[in-house]
Each structure stands twice: as structure tokens, then as C-alpha cells.
């Protein structure tokens, strides 16, 4: 079961969300709050899996509220204003529901939460002891052998995993992979790249070669740490 709360100051929008949540067997509504301050007190004492969060709220906006959360549960934003969509993904939200939204669109958003939970369950032990990871790509979880990963590239709001034989689009940001994968084997060499150090063929100046088709830049801010890792 997914335990959720609603943070929404408009009663009509609250009613819609409560109805949609009640129609899904996998969701359990634990509370409804008209502003984020009330919700903060609740979250300090109650474990929650998912927040349905409006952006335009009294006292503190939904975006500012997101910035305050350290151990953030899954968040689905609900708003009537599309201009916040791009900014919201900087905070790794699960989805962005533009009001008025249908029950079908609501179900699609919640299904991403289920994928998140499955991915986290399978990736919840140290990468040193794993042979594979599950990559969340759209509505799929794709199993990838860790040793097959050449490098990971950041591209706007998502990342691309390049393996020995294919490219996989991931919804996770680069910082997710930097934290999840073994830091002794996977190291960031640039603001846009993490590489598998076991695949290095040659380092020349500020570039690292992984194979005859892959030559990646080393950022100045990352070079010292990278070289210490490689030479140690």
C-alpha cells in the first residue's frame, strides 16, 4: 500500500483528489492539509510514501516547501499553471498533473510511484554486492548489468546510460547514479559524465578514452579526484 497525503488549499481540488485516491485500492489517504506548514508537522511524525502537492499555497509555495524536505517522499505536483513544469523536475518529482486532470492521467502518475518503489527495493543494497541495477525508463524497469555500463551522461532532466551494446534513457538525474553506484568504480569526471573506470583504455590530457568511439572530457573541477581514484 502507498500511504499518501494531500497538500491543497482549494476545497474543490481536495474533493477531486480524495475521490481519485478512494477509487484506487493501492492508495491510503492519511491526511489533507490546506498549507505546507501544517503538513510539515505531520511529516515529522508520520512516515508517508507520496505527497500530492499544489504549487500555489498560502504561507509557503509548493516549490519552496520541496526545497525544505531532506528525506523527501515521492511527490506528484498538482497545479493549474504549466510554467512551473520544467522547474519542478529539478526537484526530481514523480509527475506533474495539470488541472483539471482526468482519472486516467492520475492513474498514470501513481503508476510511476509504483515503479519508483520497485526500483528502490531492487537497488537498496550496496552496488559492490550487486551484478545489476534496474533502470527506470518511462513506464518500464530495465535490468542492466553493472559491468556492461561504459558511462552515464546527463541530458537536461534525465540521463542516458551507455552500455557495451545499447543506450538506455533514465528518468533519474546524474546525482542519483553518483550516489547509487560503487564510487570506487564509477566516478564523475565532468558535470555531465560518470564513467566506469574499469573501461578506461587511455587518459590523454583532459580526455579519457573508453573505446575507439568514446573519448570524453575531464572537467577541471573533477580532474584531481579522478586521477587520485585511477592511480590509487
Give the radius of gyration: 20 Å
Strand order of the largest sheet: 2-1-3-4-5
Count of helical stretches: 7
CATH topology of the largest domain: Rossmann fold
The portion of residues assigned to helices is: 25-40%
How many domain units? 2
Query: Element order, helices and strands?
Result: EHEHEHEHEHEEEEEHEEEEEH
Secondary structure tally: strands? 15
Largest sheet: 5 strands, parallel
The amount of beta strand, in percent, is: 25-35%
**General shape:** elongated
CATH H-level homologous superfamily name of the largest domain: Response regulator
**First-last Cα distance:** 46 Å
Secondary structural class:
alpha/beta
Poorly predicted sequence stretches spanning 5 or more consecutive residues: none
CATH class of the largest domain: Alpha Beta
Keywords:
about 230 residues, alpha/beta, Rossmann fold, OB fold (Dihydrolipoamide Acetyltransferase, E2P), five-stranded parallel β-sheet, five-stranded antiparallel β-sheet, 7 helices, 15 strands, about 35% strand, elongated
Could you explain how this protein is built, in words?
The structure is a single chain. The protein is of the alpha/beta class and 232 residues long. The protein has two domains: 2-122, Rossmann fold; 127-231, LytTr DNA-binding domain (OB fold (Dihydrolipoamide Acetyltransferase, E2P)). Helices cover 30% and strands 34% of the residues. It contains seven helices and 15 strands. The protein has helices at 11-22, 36-43, 62-68, 85-88, 103-122, 174-180, 220-231, and strands at 2-7, 27-33, 50-54, 74-79, 95-98, 132-137, 140-145, 149-155, 158-163, 167-170, 186-190, 193-196, 202-204, 207-211, 214-217. The strands form four sheets. A five-stranded parallel beta sheet has the order 2-1-3-4-5. The chain has a five-stranded antiparallel beta sheet with strand order 10-9-8-12-11. It has a three-stranded antiparallel beta sheet with strand order 13-14-15, with no helix packed on it. Strand 9 and strand 10 form a beta hairpin. The model has no long low-confidence stretch (mean pLDDT 85).
